[in-house]
C-alpha cells in the first residue's frame, strides 16, 4: 500500500480539517498544513494527534463548554509559504481544501496560490474545493496519493478528484446535532433538536459537504443495521477501496461497524480513525460514520433519502 | 481588479453602492427584526442613517475629511438602535483615518477595528449576537492576514466573508433569534452595506431598486392598524424614544454635562439605551415606559433639536397580527397530550405544535383534542395521546372532526412512546408519509416501566401489595411492589424480558421526586445494569414517580 516515490512530481497538501493523522501522512506522503483553533482566546495549531491534550480531556472540555473553542484555517501567508517551499523544490502542488460552504479556506488558498504564481510564473498549483469536511478529505488525499503513485500527473490527479468528489459518502450517525448545527455544517439546522436520547440521526453529505439527516433509527442496533444496508446500497467497487470510519468518543461502536463492513463488503482495508480537534470542535462528541466512494450523490439527496426511507420507514 | 488605495471620491462611490445594496433589501431586513424589540424597522433605520450621512458628505478627495462629514451626517440622522450603532461604527473609522488623504487595506482594517470599539463603547450593555459581534469578529478574525501589501478589494472580500460566517451564528448567541428562526437584523444590514461597498470594487454598480417592497420612512408603516392598541391592551413594550439634544450655555441649564453621568441617569428609566455625544450635541435612543422622566432629565442640560416618540406596543401587536396572518399552512402538525412541565417542554422542543395539558389523571377529552385540531393549520395532523385510556378520546375526535386536514392517531400508550415517536420525526423531509412512518417506527418495540404508589391494596398472580407501597408497572401490568421506590424500579426492570436486550434507559423524574434522587437512582441502575446507558431528565409528571423507557 506504500505510495512509491519514483513518479512523484507534485506534493499533496491537506490541512488539519482532513483529520489525516501521521501514519497516513507518512504512508501516503501527504503534507499537513496546520489549521488553528482558539481556546479561551489563546490560539493553537490544530494538531492531528493527541500529543497536547488527550482525547478524553478534549471531548470532556468540549462537552462542558463548546463556546470556549473556535477554529480558523491556516492564514494566506502560511499557505503561501508552504506552497512556495514546494514550488522552489521543483514540484507541483495539489491542495485539497475543506468545502467552501463551510470555511473560507478555499478562498484563502486561491489567494495564496495567486501570490505564489506572481513570483513563480511557471509554478503548478491546483487548489481543489473538496465540498467535504473531515475524514472524507483525508480519504480523498489518500486516493490522490494512490493515483500519483500510479503515475498520474498533477493535472490528471486533480481532474479525477474533482470529478469524483461528489461520490464521497458519509454514512453514520451523530448523537448530538447541536455542534454541526451551530457551526453551519448541518442543512436545515432549525429543524433539529440537539441530543435525541435513544435516537440515532443517520447523516450523509449533501453536495456542499453539509451533513443532512436522511432519517433516524431507534437504538444503536437498528442504526447499525440501517447503516450497513445503506452502505451496501450506495457503495461502488468495495473490494478495491479503502474505507475510513471516523469516531468521536464512539470507539466501541466504530469497531463493531468496521467488523460488519469487512464481513459484508470485503474492502481492501477499513481504518477506524479519531476525530481530532479541528473537526471535533465542529462535529462534537458522538460521531460514528463511514467514508467511502460510491454512487454520485443526487443534487437534492432524493435518491439517498428514498434508500433510507425503504430501509427505515418501509 | 486590485486596488491599493482608497481616496475620498472612491469611498463616496463605495458607500453609495452600500446604501443602494441595503435599500434593495430593506424590507427583507425589516422582516428579520426581532431584537431588541420586534418593531420591524431595522432595514429602514439603517438605510435612513446612511442616507443622511451621504446627504451631508463633503465632496473631497481627502478620505479623512470625507469620512468626518459622513460620520457627522450619520450621527444627526441616526435612527433606531441599529442606526445609532451604525453611525458609531463609522465614527470610529473616521477617528482612525481622520488625518489621511488616502488609505490602504491595513489602514482600513485599523479603521474598522476602531469602529467596532467605538460602537461597543456607545452601548450601555453590549449584547453579543448582534451587529457589534459581527463587526468585531469580522475584522478580528482577519486582522493578522491583512498587511501593507493586501489589496483593498481583498480586505473587503475577507471582511465580508468573515462577517457572513459570524452572522450565520447569531441565532446561536441570542435565543430570541433562534426561536424566531432569523439572523440578527442589524448585523445583516451592516453586512449588506459593506458588501455593497465590495461590489463596487468588483465593478458591480447597484441601482438600489427594491428587491421587495419596503416602507419609505421609519415612521409607522401606512398600513399600521392603530386599533391594535386600545383601552384593554397590555402595555409592556413601552415607547421608542429618539432625540438630538443641543446642550445649552444659557443660565438655567446645568453646565457640567458628562456623558457617563447622563447615560447612568437615563439607564434608570429604560432599556436599549444608546447615547453618543458629538461636540455640543447628544444623540439618544432609548426604550422607556416613562418618557417624561427622560425628557425632564435631558432638559436639565439643553433643548431638543429633533424628537421622536413611538408606541412600540402598536408595532409589536401589529407585527404579531401580521405573523399570524402570514402563518403558512404546514404539511404536517403534531398534537400531543402530556402531564408534566419537563415532558411538555421536551415535546415542544422536538417540534410538537400543541401539547394539551393532560393533568395528573391524564384524561384528555375528545373536546380538548378537537379544539387542538382546530388550532393548527396543516394538511396532515398527527395526534399522540399520553396513555392507553386517551387513545379512544383522540380517535373519537378524529371521527367528529369535519375539516380538511387528514388526521392520524398514533397508538402511543405512554409519554415515553410519544417521546420516541416524535424524536424519530424527520422534520425537514417534504414527504409526509415518510415522516408519519418514521414516527410509527419510533413506537415499535418500545417498552415502558412506570413507578407509582398503590392507592389501594392489590392482590393478583401471587403479588400481594399494600396500599401506600410502591409499585412497578411494566407496559401497563403491575409486576412487583416494594416499600422502597428505588428497589421497585430495579426489580421491575429485572422482570421485564426486554431489559436484557436494551442498550439504555430514558428516565423521566416525577414532580414529587427531589432532583438529588436522580443520582441515587442512577447509581442503583448502574450497579444493577452496568451495560445500560442511563439518561435522566426532569419530566415533572404527577402520577408516576419515575417513568422509564427502554431503548433497544
Write structural notes for this entry.
The complex is a heterodimer of chains A (314) and B (552). The mean pLDDT of chain A is 88. Chain A has helices at 22-27, 55-64, 76-88, 105-119, 135-149, 154-164, 178-182, 220-234, 251-265, 277-283, 302-313; strands at residues 10-15, 30-33, 36-39, 42-45, 69-72, 92-97, 125-129, 168-174, 199-205, 211-218, 242-247, 269-274, 287-293. The N and C termini of chain A lie far apart (41 Å). In chain A, β11 (242-247), α9 (251-265) and β12 form a beta-alpha-beta unit. Chain A folds into 2 domains: 10-36 and 71-165, Dihydroxyacetone kinase, domain 1 (Rossmann fold, 3-Layer(aba) Sandwich); 166-313, Hypothetical Protein Tm841, Chain: A,domain 3. Chain A is built from 11 helices and 13 strands. With 314 residues, chain A is of the alpha/beta class. In chain B, the strands form 4 sheets. Chain B has a 6-stranded mixed beta sheet with strand order 13-12-9-16-14-15, with helices on both faces. A 4-stranded antiparallel beta sheet of chain B has the order 2-3-1-4, sandwiched between helices. In chain B, α1 (8-24) runs parallel beside α4 (63-77) and α4 (63-77) runs antiparallel to α5 (80-97). Chain B has helices spanning 8-24, 26-32, 42-55, 63-77, 80-97, 105-122, 131-140, 152-173, 175-180, 185-201, 259-266, 291-298, 312-326, 341-349, 366-375, 388-400, 415-423, 432-443, 485-494, 517-528; strands spanning 239-247, 270-278, 281-288, 302-311, 330-338, 354-357, 378-384, 406-409, 447-453, 458-460, 463-465, 470-474, 477-482, 504-509, 533-538, 546-551. Chain B is built from 20 helices and 16 strands. The radius of gyration of chain B is 31 Å and the shape is elongated. Classes of the chains: A alpha/beta (314), B alpha/beta (552). The interface between A and B is large, with 35 and 42 residues.
Amino acid at each position: 500500500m506504500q505510495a512509491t516515490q519514483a513518479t512523484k512530481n507534485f506534493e499533496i497538501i491537506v490541512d488539519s480539517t482532513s483529520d489525516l493523522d501521521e501514519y497516513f501522512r507518512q504512508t501516503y506522503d501527504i503534507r499537513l498544513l496546520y489549521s488553528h483553533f482558539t481556546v479561551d482566546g489563546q490560539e493553537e495549531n490544530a494538531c492531528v494527534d493527541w500529543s497536547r491534550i488527550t482525547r478524553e480531556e478534549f471531548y470532556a472540555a468540549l462537552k462542558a463548554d463548546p463556546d470556549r473553542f473556535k477554529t480558523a484555517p491556516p492564514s494566506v501567508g502560511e499557505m503561501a509559504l508552504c506552497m512556495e517551499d514546494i514550488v522552489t523544490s521543483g514540484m507541483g502542488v495539489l491542495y485539497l481544501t475543506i468545502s467552501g460552504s463551510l470555511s473560507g479556506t478555499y478562498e484563502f488558498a486561491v489567494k495564496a496560490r495567486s501570490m505564489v504564481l506572481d513570483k513563480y510564473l511557471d509554478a503548478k498549483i491546483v487548489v481543489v474545493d473538496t465540498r467535504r469536511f473531515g475524514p472524507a478529505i483525508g480519504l480523498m488525499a489518500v486516493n490522490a496519493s494512490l493515483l500519483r503513485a500510479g503515475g498520474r500527473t498533477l493535472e490528471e490527479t486533480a481532474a479525477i478528484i474533482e470529478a469524483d468528489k461528489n461520490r464521497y459518502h458519509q454514512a453514520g450517525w451523530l448523537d448530538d446535532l447541536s455542534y454541526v448545527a451551530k457551526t453551519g455544517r448541518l442543512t436545515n439546522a432549525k429543524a433539529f433538536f440537539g441530543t435525541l436520547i435513544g435516537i440515532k440521526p443517520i447523516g450523509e453529505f449533501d453536495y456542499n459537504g453539509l451533513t443532512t439527516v436522511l432519517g433516524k433509527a431507534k437504538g444503536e442496533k437498528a442504526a447499525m443495521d440501517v447503516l450497513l444496508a445503506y452502505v451496501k446500497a450506495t457503495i461502488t467497487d468495495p473490494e478495491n477501496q479503502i474505507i475510513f470510519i471516523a469516531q468521536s468518543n464512539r470507539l466501541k461502536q466504530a469497531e463493531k461497524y468496521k467488523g460488519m463492513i469487512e464481513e459484508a463488503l470485503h474492502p481492501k482495508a477499513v481504518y477506524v480513525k479519531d476525530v481530532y480537534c479541528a473537526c471535533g470542535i465542529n462535529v462534537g462528541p458522538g460521531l460514528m460514520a463511514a467514508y467511502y466512494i460510491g454512487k454520485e450523490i443526487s443534487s437534492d439527496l432524493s435518491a439517498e433519502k428514498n434508500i433510507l426511507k425503504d430501509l427505515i420507514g418501509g | 481588479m486590485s486596488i491599493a488605495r482608497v481616496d475620498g471620491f472612491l469611498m463616496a462611490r463605495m458607500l453609495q453602492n452600500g446604501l443602494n445594496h441595503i435599500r434593495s433589501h430593506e424590507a427583507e431586513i425589516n422582516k428579520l427584526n426581532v431584537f431588541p424589540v420586534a418593531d420591524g424597522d431595522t432595514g429602514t433605520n439603517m438605510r435612513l442613517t446612511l442616507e443622511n450621512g451621504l446627504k451631508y458628505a463633503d465632496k473631497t478627495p481627502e478620505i479623512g475629511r470625507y469620512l468626518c462629514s459622513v460620520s457627522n451626517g450619520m450621527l444627526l440622522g441616526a435612527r433606531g438602535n441599529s442606526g445609532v450603532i451604525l453611525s458609531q461604527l463609522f465614527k470610529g473609522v473616521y477617528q482612525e483615518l481622520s488625518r489621511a488623504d488616502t488609505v490602504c487595506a491595513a489602514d482600513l482594517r485599523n479603521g474598522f477595528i476602531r469602529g467596532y470599539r467605538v460602537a461597543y463603547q456607545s452601548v450601555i450593555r453590549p449584547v453579543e449576537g448582534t451587529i457589534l459581534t459581527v463587526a468585531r469578529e469580522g475584522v478580528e478574525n482577519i486582522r493578522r492576514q491583512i498587511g501593507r501589501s493586501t489589496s483593498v478589494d481583498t480586505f473587503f472580500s475577507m471582511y465580508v466573508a468573515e462577517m457572513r460566517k459570524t452572522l450565520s451564528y447569531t441565532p446561536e448567541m441570542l435565543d430570541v433569534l433562534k426561536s424566531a428562526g432569523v439572523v440578527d437584523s442589524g448585523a445583516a444590514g451592516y453586512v449588506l452595506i459593506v458588501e455593497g461597498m465590495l461590489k463596487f470594487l468588483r465593478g458591480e454598480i447597484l441601482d438600489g431598486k427594491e428587491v421587495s417592497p419596503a416602507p419609505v420612512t421609519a415612521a409607522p408603516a401606512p398600513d399600521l392598524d392603530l386599533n391594535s392598541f386600545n383601552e384593554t391592551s397590555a402595555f409592556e413594550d413601552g415607547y421608542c424614544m429618539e432625540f438630538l439634544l443641543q446642550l445649552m450655555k444659557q443660565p438655567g441649564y446645568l453646565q457640567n454635562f458628562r456623558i457617563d453621568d447622563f447615560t447612568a441617569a437615563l439607564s434608570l428609566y429604560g432599556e436599549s439605551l444608546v447615547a453618543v455625544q458629538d461636540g455640543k450635541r447628544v444623540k439618544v435612543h432609548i426604550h422607556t415606559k416613562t418618557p417624561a422622566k427622560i425628557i425632564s432629565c435631558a432638559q436639565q442640560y439643553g433643548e431638543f433639536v429633533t424628537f421622536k416618540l413611538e408606541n412600540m406596543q402598536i408595532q409589536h401587536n401589529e407585527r404579531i397580527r401580521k405573523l399570524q396572518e402570514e402563518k403558512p399552512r404546514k404539511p404536517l402538525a403534531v398534537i400531543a397530550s402530556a402531564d408534566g412541565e419537563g415532558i411538555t417542554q421536551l415535546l415542544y422542543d422536538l417540534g410538537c405544535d400543541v401539547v394539551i395539558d393532560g393533568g395528573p389523571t391524564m384524561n384528555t377529552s375528545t373536546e380538548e383534542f378537537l379544539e387542538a385540531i382546530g388550532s393548527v393549520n396543516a394538511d396532515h395532523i398527527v395526534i399522540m395521546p399520553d396513555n392507553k385510556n386517551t387513545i379512544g378520546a383522540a380517535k373519537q375526535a378524529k371521527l367528529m372532526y369535519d375539516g380538511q386536514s387528514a388526521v392520524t392517531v398514533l397508538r402511543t400508550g405512554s409519554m415515553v412512546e410519544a417521546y420516541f415517536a416524535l424524536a424519530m420525526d424527520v422534520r425537514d423531509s417534504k414527504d409526509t408519509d415518510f415522516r408519519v412512518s418514521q414516527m410509527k417506527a419510533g413506537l415499535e418495540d418500545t417498552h415502558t416501566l412506570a413507578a407509582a404508589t398503590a392507592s389501594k391494596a392489590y392482590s393478583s398472580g401471587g403479588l400481594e401489595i399494600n396500599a401506600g407501597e410502591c409499585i412497578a408497572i411494566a407496559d401497563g401490568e403491575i409486576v412487583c411492589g416494594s416499600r422502597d421506590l428505588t428497589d421497585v424500579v430495579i426489580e421491575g426492570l429485572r422482570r421485564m424480558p426486554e431489559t436484557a436486550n436494551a442498550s439504555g434507559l430514558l428516565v423521566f423524574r416525577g414532580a414529587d421526586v427531589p432532583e438529588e434522587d436522580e443520582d441515587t437512582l442512577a447509581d442503583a441502575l448502574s450497579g444493577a445494569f452496568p451495560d445500560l446507558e442511563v439518561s435522566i431528565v426532569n419530566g415533572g409528571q404527577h402520577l408516576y414517580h419515575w417513568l422509564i423507557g427502554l431503548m433497544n
